[in-house]
Amino acid sequence: MISYKIRQSLHETAAFKRIEDKPNFPLAYLFKNHFPQMIAGIATTAIMSGLVVAAIIFMPTYLHQILHVDNKVVSHIMPIAMLFNVITIYMTGKAANHISLAKILTTLLIISICITPMSYWLIINAYPLIGTSLLAILEGAAAMTIPMLLTYLFPAKVRLTGVAMCYNLGFTIFGGVAPIIITSAIKAGSGVFITPVAYITAIIIVCTIGLYYAKNHSVEPIK
């Protein structure tokens, strides 16, 4: 109800007000005319969806069931990590007012490659709070950057459909399967450290390719 009241007070942007030729079937129009942008959007969503599942949604299970960290300890770790996550979302949003989106995301990808192995090393070596908080910070930066990038990919008349498709397919492909892949690989003997690190590294590579592709196919320039 609060969200509905807030939405009532918001005004449409000039881009949406100028729309005259709205397609009757936005999804069909999207697949026919903006399929490259959809691929780029789904790929760039990888880092956000992968991190939110591995670092936040799946982390309590990873800590308790795989690393055997006491549930009480886990219940203290996650709220603190989430606090860092929310602060990072806010700070990244402030930074995006002054720094280009491409620079923020490129920096995030580079930092993630370096920080992810260190984070999991800390987690499995009796410093789960620090390691989990670092991953939550990375996810916070991704959670702010990726949705904004998706809006650059599509024209206003199919922007909502395009963003929704990229967001949901990206989460299904890269986030939904994360717990299954990580758990199965660990049970198969891949190791509690290398498995999540390898998975996040893989989604960082996918996101890097997606960002390059997005720059070349976006409707609005991504600088």
Task: Please tell me about this protein's structure.
- This protein has 223 residues and is mainly alpha-helical.
- It has a single domain, classed as MFS general substrate transporter like domains (Growth Hormone, Chain: A, Up-down Bundle).
- 79% of the residues lie in helices and 0% in strands.
- The chain has helices spanning 2-9, 14-17, 26-33, 35-57, 59-66, 71-96, 101-124, 128-151, 159-175, 178-187, 194-217.
- The mean pLDDT is 89.
Throw out a few tags for this protein:
single chain, 223 residues, mainly alpha, Growth Hormone, Chain: A
| Uncertain stretches | none
User: Residue-averaged pLDDT, rounded?
Assistant: 89
Sheet with most strands: none
- The name CATH uses for the topology is Growth Hormone, Chain: A
Note the beta-strand portion.
under 5%
Number of domains: 1
Protein structure class = mainly alpha
Radius of gyration, taken over Cα atoms and rounded to an integer in Å: 19 Å
The total of beta strands comes to 0
**CATH homologous superfamily classification:** MFS general substrate transporter like domains
Name of the level-1 CATH class: Mainly Alpha
End-to-end separation in angstroms reads 37 Å
Helix content: over 70%
| Helix-strand topology string | HHHHHHHHHHH
Helical run tally? 11
